[in-house]
């Protein structure tokens, strides 16, 4: 059995892996050795009594105490320990959180922020700032510590003391919508580094589109810190493979290789060669064997990362989780819980930290805060450059200002989209989507997107707008490969890049299952991605039940803050895209048919934008005998069924309901105008080639499919599941 | 822009990549050259007129025609082409499907099945058979062709002719529940190879548990074919990294490296070094540069794979998609659509195939069918070995027979589980789950499982049953690492391994989003995995909205064939696990609290197994004034609220409803006994700290959470969202 016990001593293997002894520079060794001895003795003693599986043999064997080695530069240590102890104290006060990662990565984070990152604490949205993503979001106190120390207004001392408390700006995991300076919402592992790929893609695209000789309007770097968990998640492999393919030279990821995850030592499940894997992806890989102390090596690695312009860089920073904690470092014990009062005291003693909780030495704080002026200067210089750019390139400058800086939509985009929908002939809604995408491509310059290797099926190519490839990042068609989850997270990054790009992405509707975690994060972090999801029901036919959505509409209707559209015809498809474009803080899924549909006689653009509307009603007082409600391709069924039913003398209301969420946003009188109480639930029939789940709210009766689908030609499958006019008429007649 | 056009000629690069010219062995070249010339001329001519982006210059330049090189062994070519043309004809008749992969991989599949795999066509369930997984499930005609040719009863000529038709045993993608001989359901990319990892883990575990010196009861290999799509999907990276860690020497995966995906040439999105990546995972990687013709190299690679006992093997078989089709090979055109009548004719001509559609030369068929006797002999020999084993090791032999062969559950397991539940004290339901797992570990020897690196939080370790590691595959605790999606697919493979193992797996409930595609495949392919999902509501507290499920219960309640349990106390937790264990064809999710819960006074094991039951009712005639319904931790709320409401003179029915799906399976009279029509919807209130979505079916009013959660201590968050007795009383009083 692999060694999984709490680390209370120093195994030769762990020691060697971390390179704590072998790689320390002479200056560090001598500096550190001056205050090693007493605690080293103490530490060995602790090890002896703690019952660890492998330990230093005896208290009287004086072992060099690697935990005590700091950088050898007293002031640098003070700054790094400022980050460590704010993180420690924040977690301690909350009695909840993850101190270990910030303790281990404080030297790397300090080196990065202090010496390499350009940012303006007083304007977190400065457009050419370097971006930082904490992919290992559980280490949130690291970013909160940095934001506080560098003088962001979003995190003050009270926020630090209210870590993980209701209403604070320092929630358990970083949330972009709560805390300025937090670029993306992280926590679910692997997502952040993929967001970073999306941000770096955005930078490359905007730079290629707007930069001119002598005018590097946009030239920032995207940095991320990820941990073992991020690396293990498949999503990160997807996006990082694509990042390598695209040669994103301005993406630099620090991998906190601390050998510890929640189950204990990663030896029990994760022994692959990560560096080699990233080389296989086409990345530059740089090892920093002793990230606990060797800030020079960290600095050199970042510089080498910046120097490599045609590949992303992975810096493998080998650290000890919980560095500085004599009894909990290098152990899962320091990962996800407060260290505890005694251990905090012991850690203060170990690191020679004489300051009370939450106190930062003024000298260090002044040093951190010097970045405020530096950042303001950087932005000022950029503003001057942009003014000159505008005068030299007035048209492009105006576009940059409007589209990139302000995120404005060009006038006329919606009129053109609506006109297209109203003028278009019937077709499969995926074909109508394809045409809508051409309109948007033409009218909105920052509209970009693509498919996870289903472009010829999803019909998502914007003709004439080029592919985003390594040599052509100005291309607006994104080629994600068969990487749905990575695609979802990349699109979140594109939205949150700060360049106001509007991305759409696509796969078969069923394969939203592969990217659901990213879609939920879009909804949670208020990110207006548009999801073009074709092949939206069993009517897709032959591919069979592995490819036929059943529960998918319901599963997204249940999710907060996401528009689930299923349009029926050209007008409704155009309306769905319009909502998607306008909804900058709400993602929009558009489910589209493989098969042909009719054009509705009374299809309404405005009605579809409102989520539901009346297509026809042959009653006089608004209290029809029956109400038929459907979405997408099944609207054709209820239109035809109503005609049949009316022949037998019934009054029937026909409602198209492409988006429940939008309907729920309307006022009560509108809702009553569509689904009046005068037609009780038992007189309403919903028709959808999908699970009935959730429909009970709007209709007491359903024509639906509550089992998995079947392989066969589409029309035969629809008939098999009774998705026919005859069946709708029969069911409705029986009400 | 990368070259993505239809392949109508031979680019030097593609040629070099495939090694068609450079690696053909002399024997092959000379043999093939005897019938190259005329068609080569013709082919060049075709290229000239097809308008491809890069093409052979002119018809009068005689170019060696690589498409025509076959293996050089006429009989072998006949057998391989039998596979090719059944696949071509099946897709053609259906006018739907994927001919390209079977055409390219026929040589590899033939070599594998004919020369290396042990199987018994007349008993597809022969326990020690080698397993084969077609991870690239879209190439389903390949496996159907093989099953037909080797004489499986499950696929006859009519089935081949009814490919992708309703009710056939040859659906669009392979489905284990439709077609004997198909081990797992594939199609959604990446899943199959992960299933194969699970199968190989099962083999290793069963072998370590039961094999004795001289008695290798179980020693089969697991083979898989995956394509570029499978390799790109993150899920495959997760499972293959774990497979490398575990050193699964009996897992051999053939990677169909054909450079084509749906968007065109993989150059546009997928240029990583796959072999190097798999080496980084700890795999042996073997290149077969010319998989189109070089069956000797394929054979050698398989042998080398078998010889390497401590690592899984990836055989990178470079092929040309649609091999043999003069105008559609090496192009996405042969990937996902019928070749078309003319091209089928051209392909017949190219490959010298003189037989009409669906006809297999008798000589070839006899050859394939010889495996019937061979397989029967193998099973007979195994039966004899097992008889001897039983006599030497009667206890273990009996256990193997009962647990592994018959899949019986040992007597007494449920009585012990129920007794535990009824005797246990209140606790967080995740703690009660932990205790239930110990009971199951003790009573069911084939109960195995673990967590995606959250064992200390999910509380899923079976104490005393060891870790499954490379050196200890007999261990029953699985350490998945932070790989939820891989975990889900591996568990599907474990169930479908044919060894009747019963797996559970675990993560936080929210992270089912990462593994949803695998869970859906469990439901679809009738696989009884148990999902132990802790931290099931906003009450988990500080981790905040990224970790707090809202829509998750609804999203699984909407999915067909999956039990969504949310038990409230020890009795219900035990009942949920009992249903999970019994439901061999339906997966079961058990959502569990982080926080403490009370023990219900009238908690009913049988009631919980039925999905819903009455906890209390102070009315006389069964028509209480109000009915309160809840699940999990909120049952405590309605119990207390009912007490308050009754004080004010109301009659109140209190219903615990841990599993909707099980409730719906009960007969009408039972359902009425729990939720009688006498209490109308408007008098019913559901209480669940989760989305209200779907509840309208059972209750007209909800106390629910229809937004994302918040970070703060659990009780504070519950209060913030009005999950209090006071609020339930107020809401109920207003009805």
TrEMBL record, chains A, B:
<dbReference type="InterPro" id="IPR009014">
    <property type="entry name" value="Transketo_C/PFOR_II"/>
</dbReference>
<dbReference type="Pfam" id="PF02779">
    <property type="entry name" value="Transket_pyr"/>
</dbReference>
<keyword id="KW-0479">Metal-binding</keyword>
<dbReference type="GO" id="GO:0006098">
    <property type="term" value="P:pentose-phosphate shunt"/>
</dbReference>
<comment type="subunit">
    <text>Homodimer.</text>
</comment>
<feature type="binding site">
    <location>
        <position position="258"/>
    </location>
    <ligand>
        <name>thiamine diphosphate</name>
    </ligand>
</feature>
<dbReference type="Pfam" id="PF00456">
    <property type="entry name" value="Transketolase_N"/>
</dbReference>
<feature type="binding site">
    <location>
        <position position="594"/>
    </location>
    <ligand>
        <name>substrate</name>
    </ligand>
</feature>
<feature type="binding site">
    <location>
        <position position="98"/>
    </location>
    <ligand>
        <name>substrate</name>
    </ligand>
</feature>
<keyword id="KW-0786">Thiamine pyrophosphate</keyword>
<feature type="binding site">
    <location>
        <position position="535"/>
    </location>
    <ligand>
        <name>substrate</name>
    </ligand>
</feature>
<protein>
    <recommendedName>
        <fullName>transketolase</fullName>
        <ecNumber>2.2.1.1</ecNumber>
    </recommendedName>
</protein>
<feature type="active site" description="Proton donor">
    <location>
        <position position="484"/>
    </location>
</feature>
<dbReference type="InterPro" id="IPR033247">
    <property type="entry name" value="Transketolase_fam"/>
</dbReference>
<dbReference type="InterPro" id="IPR029061">
    <property type="entry name" value="THDP-binding"/>
</dbReference>
<comment type="similarity">
    <text>Belongs to the transketolase family.</text>
</comment>
<dbReference type="GO" id="GO:0046872">
    <property type="term" value="F:metal ion binding"/>
</dbReference>
<dbReference type="InterPro" id="IPR055152">
    <property type="entry name" value="Transketolase-like_C_2"/>
</dbReference>
<dbReference type="GO" id="GO:0004802">
    <property type="term" value="F:transketolase activity"/>
</dbReference>
<feature type="binding site">
    <location>
        <position position="430"/>
    </location>
    <ligand>
        <name>substrate</name>
    </ligand>
</feature>
<feature type="site" description="Important for catalytic activity">
    <location>
        <position position="98"/>
    </location>
</feature>
<feature type="binding site">
    <location>
        <position position="511"/>
    </location>
    <ligand>
        <name>thiamine diphosphate</name>
    </ligand>
</feature>
<feature type="binding site">
    <location>
        <position position="138"/>
    </location>
    <ligand>
        <name>thiamine diphosphate</name>
    </ligand>
</feature>
<dbReference type="InterPro" id="IPR005475">
    <property type="entry name" value="Transketolase-like_Pyr-bd"/>
</dbReference>
<feature type="binding site">
    <location>
        <begin position="187"/>
        <end position="189"/>
    </location>
    <ligand>
        <name>thiamine diphosphate</name>
    </ligand>
</feature>
<feature type="binding site">
    <location>
        <position position="258"/>
    </location>
    <ligand>
        <name>Mg(2+)</name>
    </ligand>
</feature>
<keyword id="KW-0460">Magnesium</keyword>
<dbReference type="InterPro" id="IPR005474">
    <property type="entry name" value="Transketolase_N"/>
</dbReference>
<dbReference type="InterPro" id="IPR020826">
    <property type="entry name" value="Transketolase_BS"/>
</dbReference>
<dbReference type="Pfam" id="PF22613">
    <property type="entry name" value="Transketolase_C_1"/>
</dbReference>
<feature type="binding site">
    <location>
        <position position="547"/>
    </location>
    <ligand>
        <name>substrate</name>
    </ligand>
</feature>
<feature type="binding site">
    <location>
        <position position="543"/>
    </location>
    <ligand>
        <name>substrate</name>
    </ligand>
</feature>
<keyword id="KW-0630">Potassium</keyword>
<dbReference type="GO" id="GO:0005829">
    <property type="term" value="C:cytosol"/>
</dbReference>
<dbReference type="InterPro" id="IPR005478">
    <property type="entry name" value="Transketolase_bac-like"/>
</dbReference>
<feature type="binding site">
    <location>
        <position position="335"/>
    </location>
    <ligand>
        <name>substrate</name>
    </ligand>
</feature>
<feature type="binding site">
    <location>
        <position position="457"/>
    </location>
    <ligand>
        <name>substrate</name>
    </ligand>
</feature>
<feature type="site" description="Important for catalytic activity">
    <location>
        <position position="335"/>
    </location>
</feature>
<feature type="binding site">
    <location>
        <position position="228"/>
    </location>
    <ligand>
        <name>Mg(2+)</name>
    </ligand>
</feature>
<feature type="domain" description="Transketolase-like pyrimidine-binding">
    <location>
        <begin position="427"/>
        <end position="599"/>
    </location>
</feature>
<keyword id="KW-0808">Transferase</keyword>
<dbReference type="InterPro" id="IPR049557">
    <property type="entry name" value="Transketolase_CS"/>
</dbReference>
